[in-house]
Amino acid sequence: MATRERRLAEFDGNGQPPPDLPVQVLCEDHSGTYQLPFACRFVDGEWRNHESGGTVEATVVGWRLQRPRGTAQP
Question: What's this model's pTM, rounded to 2 decimal places?
Fold first, then answer.
């Protein structure tokens, strides 16, 4: 299992992404960190599901540019 620090290092987006840019997000709760299975956008101070536009009701702790499906991770 990846450590919290390693997962955070993989989601190395700094600041806020442009609102029109879909990105992958890393969230955290009492059980640990997890990646949402859908792309998100940061719009007007809120994280939103890129497809549905719905607000993400999770604590986002990191983001990164989307990786193509099937891309191996280090």
Answer: 0.82
